[in-house]
Design a protein that fits this description.
The protein is of the alpha+beta class. It has 22 helices and 9 strands. It has a 5-stranded antiparallel sheet. A 4-stranded antiparallel sheet has the order 3-1-4-5. A hairpin with a 4-residue loop joins β4 and β5. The termini are far apart.
Length: about 600
C-alpha cells in the first residue's frame, strides 16, 4: 500500500481552534472596539466630519492600534498554541500523536493564522457596516484595513514563533520576544551614547539599525495618529512598501522557526536556551547590555549625562566593568537555573569578556579605532555644512543658517582648522560648556554618507582662541558669505514676504515693533537691503563680542514667509552701522534714532 506524507491534519486543526477560540475572540473584541465601534459612537463636538470617520479614521486605527495589538497577540498566540513546548507532560503527549513534526508544526501555524484572519475579516465587515451607518461607504478603505491587519499579523507572528523556538521556558519566551524586537536598535543606541561620551567630537546620530526593529519603524512610518489636530483630511499616509517587506520577513521567520523546530530536542523543555550554540551569544548580550545600562543609567540618574566628552572616564570604566560582571553571572544564573555559578570556567569566560569591555572603553577614550582623528580626504567631500554658535552675526534664520560650502579652497581651509582642533583635543575636551563655542561640522561625502562632528572650543586658552579664529576665517570666507547672500536674496524676492522692524529705545528702556506695509517692505528690500549686502557687514560673523556690540544697532528687520506646507521660514537682520542705506531708510521713514547694542546694554546696566 502506497504511503503519503501530509503537512496538515484536520483533526488537530479543529481541536486547536475549538480549544483556543477564546484567544482569537479577545483579539477580535479588541479590534472591533477600537475600530468599527469607535467609528459610530458619539464623539465630543469637533471639526471632524462623518466622512473622515468613515474613510481615514479606520486606516489610522488599523495601523497604530493594529500594530500594538498584533505585537502583543503574536506572543500570546505562540505561548498558548505552542505551549506544549514549555511543558514536559504536554510535550510528551504531543509527541505521542500519530503525526510527524512537520505535520504538527504546519497544522498549528495554519490554526494560528486562520484564527487571526477570521478576527480580521469580522472587523473589516463591521467597518463596512459602520460606513453604511455614517453614510459614506468606501470598499477601498475596507480592503486597506483588512490588508493592514493581515500584514501586521504576519510581521509579528513570524518573529514571535521564531523567538518561541529559542527557549523552553514559557516565562522567558515573551521576554526574549520583547527584547529581541528592539535589541538591534537598543544596543546600537547605547553604544552610540557611550561613544559620544568618550570619543572626542562624535555626537549621537540616528542609527540605521532602527530598520531591524519593525515595531519602532512601523510606529514612525504610519499615518499621523494625532488626527484631531488636523485641519484638512487628505489620504492617510501609509508606507505599504515597508509593511510588505516586514511581512515577507515575518514569513521568512516562520520558515526559520520550522527549521529550528525540526532540530529542537525534547530534552530542552524548561531550558532557558533551547540550543547550546546560542548560550555564548546569550552570555555576551547580557554582559554588554548590563554593562551599558549600569554605566549610562548611573550617569543619567546622577545628573552627569550632560558633562563634557571624556569627563568621568574612571567612573564610566568602573561602572561598565561592574555591570559586565553582573550581566555575565546573571546570564549564568538564568541558563543554569542555579546560583552555583562561580566555577573556574565561568571565571575565565567572565575575565575575557571584562577585558574586551575594557579594550572597547580605552579604545573609545584614546581613539585606538581612529574614529575621532578621521578627516575625510578633500577629493571625497561633496560639501561641508557648518553651524558655529561662538561668533555673533547680524543675520540668522531658517533660510540662512547652516550653510553648505562646496568651494574646494574653503573646504580645505575647513579641514586645516579641523585638524588643528584635533591637535588640541585635550584642551577642548575639558572645555567648560557654558563658556565655550559650540561647533558642528557635517561632511557630505560623494558616496552619499555624512560624517558629523561637534566640538566645544575653549576660547579662554591660547590654542582654543587660535582654533576659534581659524574657524572664523572659514565662516567669513568669500564662498561662505556668497552662499548666505544667495539664500537671503532668494528669501527677499519671495512675493509672500512679510516684514517688521523691531527696535529698542535706551531712553525709555522700551522695545517696540513697527509692521511694514507691502510697499515699505518692497522699498526697503530693493533699494536698501539688497544693495547693502554688497558693502556692509550684514553677512559677516563677529568673533569679538565687544566689536559686535559696538558696530551693530538695536534695530532688527524681521522677515517671514509661509510656504506651501504651512510652516514659516524667516530671517532676522540686526542692522549694522555700516549698512548705510538701511540706516537712512529707517531714520527717514520711521523717525527712529539708531543706538548700538553697547549703548543699550550700558543703559540697561
Amino acid at each position: 500500500m502506497a504511503s503519503k506524507t501530509s503537512f496538515f491534519n484536520k483533526t488537530i486543526f479543529r481541536e486547536t481552534l475549538r480549544r483556543y477560540w477564546a484567544v482569537f475572540a479577545v483579539y477580535a473584541f479588541a479590534l472591533i472596539a477600537a475600530i468599527p465601534l469607535d467609528m459610530i459612537l458619539p464623539k465630543n463636538p469637533s471639526s471632524l466630519t462623518a466622512s473622515f470617520y468613515a474613510t481615514q479614521f479606520p486606516l489610522i486605527r488599523a495601523w497604530h492600534f493594529g500594530l500594538i495589538l498584533s505585537f502583543v497577540m503574536a506572543a500570546a498566540v505562540v505561548m498558548f498554541l505552542f505551549g506544549y513546548l514549555y511543558s514536559s507532560r504536554q510535550n510528551s503527549l504531543y509527541a505521542s500523536l500519530p503525526v510527524t513534526r512537520n505535520t504538527l508544526f504546519c497544522t498549528l501555524v495554519c490554526a494560528c493564522l486562520i484564527g487571526l484572519l477570521a478576527a480580521n475579516v469580522l472587523t473589516a465587515v463591521l467597518v463596512l457596516v459602520a460606513q453604511i451607518i455614517l453614510g459614506s461607504v468606501s470598499l477601498m478603505t475596507v480592503g486597506k484595513v483588512l490588508l493592514t491587519l493581515i500584514l501586521m499579523n504576519l510581521v509579528f507572528f513570524g518573529f514571535a514563533l521564531f523567538c518561541g523556538m529559542l527557549t523552553g521556558s514559557i516565562f522567558i519566551m515573551p521576554l526574549v520576544y520583547a527584547v529581541l524586537s528592539v535589541a538591534a536598535f537598543g544596543y546600537s543606541l547605547l553604544l552610540g551614547v557611550m561613544a559620544s561620551k568618550l570619543i572626542f567630537g562624535v555626537s549621537l546620530a540616528e542609527t540605521p539599525t532602527m530598520y531591524l526593529s519593525p515595531l519602532l519603524m512601523l510606529m514612525r512610518s504610519g499615518p499621523d495618529p494625532y488626527y484631531t489636530y488636523m485641519e484638512s483630511y487628505g489620504e492617510a499616509s501609509m508606507d505599504w512598501r515597508m509593511l510588505i517587506l516586514y511581512a515577507l520577513a515575518g514569513l521568512a521567520f516562520i520558515v526559520l522557526a520550522w527549521l529550528l523546530y525540526r532540530k529542537r530536542r525534547a530534552e530542552t523543555v524548561s531550558d532557558t536556551v533551547s540550543f547550546p550554540i546560542l548560550k555564548p551569544l546569550f552570555r555576551i548580550c547580557m554582559t554588554l547590555g548590563c554593562a551599558l545600562l549600569l554605566s549610562l543609567g548611573s550617569e543619567v540618574m546622577s545628573g552627569m549625562a550632560a558633562t563634557g566628552v571624556g569627563s568621568g572616564f574612571a567612573r564610566i570604566l568602573v561602572l561598565t566593568l561592574m555591570g559586565g560582571i553582573l550581566g555575565y553571572y546573571l546570564a549564568e544564573v538564568i541558563i543554569r537555573k542555579s546560583f552555583r555559578v562561580i566555577t573556574r570556567q565561568s571565571l575565565t569566560r567572565c575575565g575575557i569578556l571584562t577585558v574586551l569591555l575594557a579594550v572597547m572603553l580605552f579604545g573609545y577614550r584614546y581613539d585606538w579605532f581612529h574614529v575621532a582623528s578621521r578627516i575625510p580626504p578633500l577629493e571625497k567631500i561633496q560639501s561641508v555644512q557648518i553651524n558655529y554658535s561662538g561668533p555673533q552675526t547680524p543675520l540668522y534664520g531658517s533660510e540662512v543658517d547652516q550653510i553648505s560650502i562646496t568651494d574646494p579652497d574653503t573646504i580645505e581651509l575647513c579641514r586645516e582648522a579641523h585638524r588643528s582642533i584635533l591637535d588640541h583635543r585635550e584642551i577642548h575636551r575639558n572645555a567648560p560648556e557654558a563658556e565655550s563655542h559650540l561647533l558642528y561640522l557635517d561632511y557630505a561625502l560623494k558616496n552619499g554618507r555624512v560624517m558629523s562632528r561637534s566640538y566645544y572650543l575653549d576660547p579662554a586658552t591660547e590654542e582654543g582662541k587660535a582654533d576659534s579664529e581659524w574657524m572664523g576665517e572659514v565662516i567669513n570666507s568669500r564662498s561662505f558669505l556668497q552662499n548666505r547672500k544667495e539664500r537671503l536674496i532668494q528669501l527677499l524676492q519671495d512675493p509672500k514676504l512679510m516684514g517688521l522692524v523691531d527696535y529698542y529705545l535706551p531712553e525709555t528702556e522700551d522695545s517696540k515693533q513697527y509692521q511694514l506695509s507691502t510697499d515699505q517692505l518692497q522699498d526697503l528690500v530693493v533699494n536698501c537691503l539688497i544693495p547693502d549686502l554688497e558693502d556692509s557687514t550684514i553677512l559677516n560673523y563677529y568673533l569679538d563680542d565687544e566689536e559686535y556690540c559696538r558696530d551693530v544697532t538695536t534695530w532688527t528687520i524681521e522677515l517671514t514667509k509661509e510656504d506651501a506646507s504651512g510652516s514659516y521660514e524667516y530671517a532676522f537682520i540686526s542692522v549694522p552701522a555700516d549698512a548705510a542705506r538701511c540706516m537712512q531708510w529707517i531714520q527717514s521713514n520711521l523717525g527712529l534714532t539708531p543706538h548700538s547694542i553697547a549703548e543699550a546694554n550700558q543703559n540697561m546696566g
